């Protein structure tokens, strides 16, 4: 129906001015155009507006429907992206909240390890000190034994030297000879022979 109206309007704007112009003749033609100039302008405007309206209606509807559909799809995608972002943000917040607890647990664990390591080092230090003390006592005891043995040897050397000096002072050549004779006599005596058997 709208198409028919458009065609009628088109025919009216083309045919009516041409028919009126033929009837009026050449001189009247100029005066008719001048007299009906406003009506012709309105007819041209209506024809242009109708043509534009028809084109807009024919093409604008599907364009706006497609555009609306695209906007809806973009809104749905945007909503999904927002939900995903909110989920990620919630996950990050949860991890951050758990991170404080994890850091506290790691600190407590490191303090425990440091304390146990300190105790272990203290035990090792005490054991090393005890070992060094025992080794030092053994070395002192060995040094004491060596010093006592050296002292006994020195005392024996001194005693032998002193006895030698006393003997040299007391024993004269005459006493020496008497001692040798007595010794030889003791060797020859029967009691020494019996002892030998």
Output the helix-strand order. HHHH
Poorly predicted tracts of residues: none
Anisotropy-based shape: rod-shaped
- Average predicted confidence as pLDDT: 80
The proportion of residues forming helix, as a percent range, comes to over 70%
Question: What proportion strand?
Answer: under 5%
Report the C-alpha radius of gyration, rounded. Answer: 70 Å
Helix/strand-derived class?
mainly alpha
Helix tally?
4
Task: Report the strand count.
Answer: 0
Cα distance, first to last residue?
Answer: 173 Å
Major sheet: size, sense and barrel closure? none
What features would you describe in this structure?
There is one protein chain. With 197 residues, the protein is mainly alpha-helical. It is 97% helix and 0% strand. It contains four helices and no strands. Helix 1 crosses helix 2 (37-170). The longest helix is centred in the middle third of the chain and has 134 residues, at 37-170. The protein is rod-shaped and about 200 Å long.
Topology:
Layout: H1 2-35, H2 37-170, H3 173-188, H4 190-196
Helix pairs in contact: 1-2
Structure at a glance:
Helix content is about 95%, strand content about 0%. With about 200 residues, the protein is mostly helical.
Summary tags:
single chain; mainly alpha; 197 residues
């Amino acid at each position: 129906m709208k198409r028919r109206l458009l065609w009628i309007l088109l025919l009216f704007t083309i045919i009516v001015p041409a028919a009126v112009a033929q009837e009026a003749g050449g001189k009247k033609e100029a005066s008719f155009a001048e007299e009906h100039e406003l009506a012709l302008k309105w007819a041209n405007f209506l024809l242009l507006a109708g043509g534009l309206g028809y084109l807009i209606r024919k093409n604008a509807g599907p364009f706006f429907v497609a555009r609306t559909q695209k906007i809806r799809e973009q809104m749905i995608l945007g909503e999904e992206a927002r939900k995903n972002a909110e989920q990620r943000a919630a996950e990050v917040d949860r991890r951050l909240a758990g991170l404080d607890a994890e850091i506290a647990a790691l600190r407590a664990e490191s303090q425990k390890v440091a304390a146990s390591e300190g105790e272990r080092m203290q035990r090792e230090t005490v054991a090393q000190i005890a070992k060094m003390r025992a080794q030092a006592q053994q070395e002192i005891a060995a040094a004491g034994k060596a010093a006592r043995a050296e002292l006994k040897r020195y005392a024996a050397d001194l005693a032998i030297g002193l006895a030698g000096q006393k003997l040299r002072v007391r024993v004269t050549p005459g006493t020496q000879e008497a001692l040798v004779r007595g010794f030889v006599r003791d060797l020859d005596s029967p009691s020494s022979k019996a002892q030998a058997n």
